[in-house]
Amino acid sequence: MLMIILKDKEELIEEINNGKLQQDIYEYLKELDSDKEQRIEEPLNDKEVYSFFDAEIGGNNYISYEKLMNPYDEISLVLHNLISNVYRRFIKENNQNGGNDGGNYGANSGFDI
Q: H-helix or E-strand containing 102?
């Protein structure tokens, strides 16, 4: 499971703007895909993908994968959409290319966030 740990909402925004959070999620999906025991054989549905993630914001705001599946506030909604977008990109690129080394997810990358 990838635990996203951030100190506050501002750090979340910064990590999205510089593409680091998207890249971390993408790299984790690649790791899962290459792990024979956890390999993603078929595309996950929109709910299943979140079971690989959770988050902690500010040291006292834990966001479980269940809360990422069903966002309940602004931060969980942002993370929900981010994970969904990165996963769709991962599936699209790996279906087209038979594999990928990731990509640049900065503000000008054309990546939907």
A: none
Please check whether residue 54 is in contact with residue 62, taking contact to mean a CB–CB distance below 8 angstroms: yes
- Domain extent for 52: 2-97
Total domain count, the chain? 1
Q: Convert the pLDDT of each residue in 48-87 to its tens digit.
A: 889 999 999 998 899 999 999 999 999 999 999 999 999 9
Q: Are 32 and 39 contacting, i.e. CB atoms less than 8 angstroms apart?
A: yes
Do 92 and 31 form a contact (C-beta atoms < 8 A)?
Answer: no
**Coil, strand or helix: which one is 42?**
coil
**CA 51, CA 81: separation in Å to the nearest integer?**
14
